[in-house]
């Protein structure tokens, strides 16, 4: 990532009002869940599984890498409070979109960088965000942009994980630096 941070110019004609939901996979869903829950205008964040072949996946199965599902978050936000481009730029800043099927120590297709669109308008917005954010990375972005199949909500223990477990090792070592990076680039959009 460049020292200058994300460039939020070059937005598309996505509505600057109304409530929208984006489904985004950025490695372990606990990380982006923590960041988006602290974002102004975000009304809901749901951790879940998407994009695989198992009809009712659970955490253990998804972690095995055999289901085809990715860990992802469904982020619902009010575009009048936080622009869609900010939500998407936070996604590209919050993980390394240049590593295929890997985020740090988390390895496997379940940790792939992915964006799941529900219509052509979202697809175009996601593609524009990818192009816009490519300049912030030396290596090519490998984020997949694909139609959204059924989103499976993860078990209750995985919802709002960081807030309930802030002193757990993973939260201290992995999530805290991601929150610090979000504060660095997006402080005007964060609640704390």
Features:
192 residues; alpha+beta; six-stranded mixed sheet
Please, could you describe this protein's structure?
By secondary structure, this protein is α+β, with helices and mostly antiparallel strands. It has 6 helices and 8 strands; from the N terminus they run βαβαβαβββαββαα. The strands form 2 sheets. Strands 7-6-1-3-2-8 form a 6-stranded mixed beta sheet, with helices on one face. Helix 3 packs across helix 4.
What proportion of the residues form beta strands (DSSP E)? 15-25%
How many beta-strand elements? 8
Q: H/E element string?
A: EHEHEHEEEHEEHH
- Principal-axis shape equals globular
Helix content: 25-40%
Mean pLDDT: 92
User: Strand count, sense and closure of the main sheet?
Assistant: 6 strands, mixed
Instruction: List segments where confidence is low: pLDDT < 50 over at least 5 consecutive residues.
Output: 7-11
Q: Please give the alpha-carbon distance between the first and last residues.
A: 24 Å
Helix tally equals: 6
Strand order of the largest sheet: 7-6-1-3-2-8
The structure class reads: alpha+beta
Radius of gyration: 15 Å
